Amino acid sequence: MMLIFEISKKGRKSDYLPACDVPLSALPQASKLRKDPPKLPELSEIELTRHYTRLAKQAFGVNSGFYPLGSCTMKYNPRVNEVTASNPNFMGIHPLQPLESAKGCREVLDLAESLLCEVTGMNAMSFQPAAGAHGEYTGLLLIKKYHELRGDHLRTKIIIPDSAHGTNPASAAMVGYSVVNIPSDANGCVDMDALKKACTDEIAGLMLTNPNTLGLFDPNILEITQLVHACGGLNYYDGANLNAIMGKSRPGDMGFDVVHLNLHKTFSTPHGGGGPGSGPVGCKNILKSYLPDSIMIEGRKPESIGQVRSFYGNFGIVVRALTYILSLGSDGLKAASETAVLNANYLMHQVKEYFPVAYDHVCMHEFVLTLEKTKHDKNISALDVAKGLIDYGMHPPTMYFPLIVHEALMLEPTETESRESLDQAAMAFKAIKEKIDMDPDALHAAPLSTPIGRPDEVNAARNPILRYTSK
Amino acid sequence: MGGYLPSTQNERNDMLKSIGYKDINDLYKDVPSQVLLKTDLSIPKGLSEMDVRSKLDGIAAKNIAFPVVMRGAGAYDHYIPAIVGSVTSKEEFSTTYTPYQAELSQGVLQSIFEFQTMICELTGMDVSNASMYDGSSSAAEAAMMCLDRRRQQVLVSQAAHPETIETIRTYCWGRNVPFNTIPVKNGLTDVEALKSMINNKTACVFIQQPNFLGQIEQADLLNKVTHEAGAKAIMGVYPTSLGMLKTPAEYDADIVTGEGQPLGLALNYGGPYLGFMACKKELTRSLPGRIVGETKDNKGNRAFVLTLQAREQHIRREKASSNVCSNQALCAMMAAVYMAAMGPEGIEQAAALSFHKAHYFAQELTKIEGFSLIYDGEYFNEFITSCPIDAKQLERALMEKGILSGLVLDNTMLWCVTEKLSKETLDDVVKTIREVCLI
User: Fold this and answer.
1) Which residues in chain B touch residue A176, judged by CB atoms under 8 angstroms apart?
2) ipTM (interface predicted TM)
3) The pLDDT of residue B312 is above 90
4) Is the domain of A253 the same as that of A352?
5) What CATH number is attached to the domain comprising A443?
6) Given an 8 Å threshold on Cβ–Cβ distance, is B43 in contact with A119?
7) Of A180, A221, A309, A392, which to mutate for an interface test with B (greatest number of B Cβ within 10 Å)?
8) Could you tell me the pTM of the whole model?
């Protein structure tokens, strides 16, 4: 497809701004002015809008079809959220307005804080972090501050299970912590012996997703958090998988001291092709005074970790999440989680007829297949199966994650899928299984229904072309 | 309420039975009974869509959206063409995930590739990433990018946005890296002070152009000092100003960051905004975050993919260049549609109108006794004046007339003017201020 720069014709434009109605002032001296105008595209509005309509036809969203991308919680994004968030009395508010003229915005943040604290069992929350990984980073800074203010400078290690999201160790490195990897046991949960050995006076804390990335709820969760507390560390809850347990169980009750949430997963705000998200951080009272603040709005609080970005974070996303929480209420949130877990088990039950589950056990909101044997016997990888599924009209599952499962495919159907759409997905897996048995090579050519075939990623990284340059 | 569940309760009961369970709690059997909630969460029951809209509208009504905004300081009220919202509200764009599956996501990947190119064009730099969270965190990530084993000190101009300074300070504290601010002299980052502070341990120097006080920095002098010491020059820029002002590339900056909100994003009480980041070619592989590259598919067609992923957390874990995962993709698309709609002429016009209107307003305002410019240097569309009465009192008086005044800084005011304010409006504001100050 043509790039927007290739459609561009010199001199084409639309009139968005009026002529200057004030007397002209002297421009800054020439040494402070740019030499050439930026080579931005020049097009009429109809060319512009058609260009993006063409691009939209080559994109696949939750509204396009089933999207069981594990760990990403691709549930339906209710339209009413967009309507409430686009109220001009939210969108037109300057972040540095006097507070008395922004009472509604304050109320949104306060109400969302109290509701999400109740869902998670926390005492306070900050909405400044802009995404999940940003929330992890913020949460770890709270832990760092806690130890620092206690004069406990030897705690430089964070315990992270090997099934964790890649952002966990990356966030730990950003706060100067080294990572102690804990293997998973035979059941896919935290290896308790390894954890006991790891719990020393050098441990700042533990980062854990529960249910974990295998979709398993760790039955030893209370012992785990107690062990970490006993050695003087704090417990961090990665909320990426909260969609399994709303109204059923709370991180605060499990012994976690700090959590981050992904409003763009659990609380139905749209992913937007990779953001904007929102990664609020909640904590218990012991960490409350360290939460990030906005120096220009609230002034510097003496014990705060400081600021992790500007102002209040992605406010517009919080409005959407608040709309969702108020729409569902206590009954709806619980039903959403129960149904997410039911749908995952229902789909797993069917799909495991065709491909083995890595840990064959009742699952929470997601489960992981392993195609190790198919790869070995038929030379069909998880990637091949994923690409094959595209031709059945669905988005593939998450591939090659968690790292502890070979040839992994991770499926998270979410609660907003009907029984029929789950049945159809199971049929797609069945059809792929049959293809593998009959004519495995055919799958190497998949997908066939998309505008492009498999891209050459090696060449993309070896000879990077990262921008258009006019010929 | 329903939780947007398509299945009925009966269907769910059947599904549960079909897989051999009786009760939904059978699926939660691994949850220890001590932590399995026995009662409902103490939050209200769900509302109908009609009720939830009326509740949210009621909350929004407690805000005042000012028809006249003369406040910038990091969030700018520029005109947003209608086409921006129209394009980015397409559900294929808004409801899609990060484009991991290239075959299904060419539209999203191409739009990011185009955004990267536009940011390169605007800033003059070689390479841009797919976006960062906001201007402040982008600046902080840029500073982290420059650290190496020998160079561990970060210097930041005291004339940068206070929240940007705070964010960089936090990131430095997190990484146990020394952080210092460079003092300001007559509204500009003090070049002599920088000379005395910089040394062979300095990793980078961050300056903002125009700075928080509205002044156009002597970026050529500052960056020269930085480079002579072997450190990297990072510039935070106001994108609209680049329709007029010299580009960071022309100032020989190594990394450019900025708040992209002025490029078609609403004020939205501080977010979602858009961080952007661009750099010289040789720093490409240290960039944080997503990057889209061009390649070919198995049939030789042009194709776009997420690339250079060996930098990223899902591959490198604790050795990644950053932990960034979700960024602000849809906001980047808003900025791309804005830049494409405006074109080179439109961006130039937005910059020129903001500049001339700001200077006109400054000229008229300083005709009132007691208002004078605090700094005499060149500025773009923000400037600080004295205030003959209590600045908070003036702020309140203007609020009553529907005007959000300049930001009160001690007893001075930081004013901002964009293309949205007509001469008539500006004259009215001056008249109102005159009346308020005479009483």
Assistant:
1) 174-176
2) 0.97
3) no
4) no
5) 3.90.1150.10
6) yes
7) A309
8) 0.97
